[in-house]
Amino acid sequence: MSEVVHCCQDRMVYESRRFNLPQAEIKCLMLFAEIGQQTVTQVAQGLDVAKSRASNILSDMATRGLVSFDPDPDDGRVKLVSLTDRGKEYAAEIGDFITRIHGAVLSRLEPPERVMVIKSLELLKNAMDSVKQQLEEM
Amino acid sequence: MSEVVHCCQDRMVYESRRFNLPQAEIKCLMLFAEIGQQTVTQVAQGLDVAKSRASNILSDMATRGLVSFDPDPDDGRVKLVSLTDRGKEYAAEIGDFITRIHGAVLSRLEPPERVMVIKSLELLKNAMDSVKQQLEEM
DNA sequence: CAAGTTGGTTAATGGTATTAACTAAGCATT
DNA sequence: AATGCTTAGTTAATACCATTAACCAACTTG
User: Fold this and answer.
1) Residue B23 φ/ψ, nearest 5 degrees
2) Which of A8, A44, A138, B123 fits a disulfide with A51 by CB distance 3.0 to 4.6 angstroms?
3) Among A7, A109, A127, whose Cβ lies nearest the Cβ of B105?
4) Is residue B8 domain-shared with residue B55, that is, in the same domain?
5) Are residues A114 and A90 in the same domain?
6) Distance (Å) from the alpha carbon of A26 to chain B's nearest alpha carbon
7) According to DSSP H, which parts of A48-84 are helical?
8) Residue B129: which domain range?
């Protein structure tokens, strides 16, 4: 179990080296691929980090030319963040890479095993969530 | 999938808060519970970190009174590290906690599901290892 | 004994992440 | 319109995780 987790973390490290970007920025690119234009606060929620952390990540990404900031016409406080063309390219490349990896893993399983594995992960996730909730109540 | 991984990381964070110890020291305590007296280099290998990192973790743990260093009578360079009584207590407590959590997760699955989940994790691990190896060769 | 190897420490660096303090903008309410 | 609260975002301080490089001391081997 813990080995499976460790392996997923390794994949992040590998990605990070391969694309020469910090892991946090990679996650952030994937978030944009899913959600598109967002505010800083939304990014913080999406990445599940403090607003200040999101702010730092995004400003680093802006330095790299991956995202750009636009003022919200309806609210002078908020900054709308979106991927630049360069950011979109990166996001597409990384998304591709992840898809390929997932495909490679699944292709190493017989079709009936695939179904079983996916179902198991679902079950496991629910069980873990349930335990987690119980823990939080104590 | 990534949610399962995230949940396991959350467990580490939770443990860390609960026992008021950095995650690295918790992992280290669990390593000692498994292996007993070790050298600094062995700890580094066991935790899969650089020797320097292990050295730092262990000296922090020594400050907390969790481990003690003894010279190796056969080799003046090596330091044999072992848990103090305090360290053993902590290790036992944490080990208990982990066992309880795992038990709680498994108890939320029907017995046949349990077998399936465990088998799936095994399959998944092998598939991931295989992909990883292929990746490293490129 | 000189040369190379191994065990361990220290320092420099960089990534991850949080909390606290702060600014500026928006929204109420009097 | 002035006061006061809330929200969006930034900055600074702090802490943890981890690596590489440089180094010393001790062992091994030719």
Assistant:
1) -55, -40
2) A44
3) A127
4) yes
5) no
6) 14
7) 51-63
8) 110-138
B60 and B116 share one domain: no
Q: Which of residues 28-57 of B touch strand D (CB under 7 A)?
A: 47-50, 52-53, 56-57
pLDDT in tens, B60-107: 999 999 999 999 999 999 999 999 999 999 999 999 999 999 999 999
- Strand D: which positions are within 7 A of a protein CB? 7-13, 15-22, 25-28
Q: Are residues A136 and A94 in the same domain?
A: no
A15 and A80: one domain? yes
Q: Determine whether the interchain pair A127/B120 forms a contact, defined as Cβ–Cβ distance below 8 Å.
A: no
Burial A54-79 (b: 16+ CB within 10 A, else e): bbebbebbeeeebbbeeeeeeeeeeb
Instruction: Verify that B71 and B130 share a domain, yes or no.
Output: no
Show the tokens assigned to B74.
Answer: 């056969």
Helical residues (DSSP H) of B50-136, grouped into ranges:
51-63, 85-107, 111-136
Based on the fold, state whether residues A95 and A119 are members of the same structural domain: no
3-state SS, residue A4: helix
What ipTM does the predicted assembly reach? 0.87
Read off the pLDDT of residues A61-89 as tens digits, 9 standing for 90 and up.
Answer: 999 999 999 999 999 999 999 999 999 99
Q: Is the CB of B17 under 7 A from strand C?
A: no
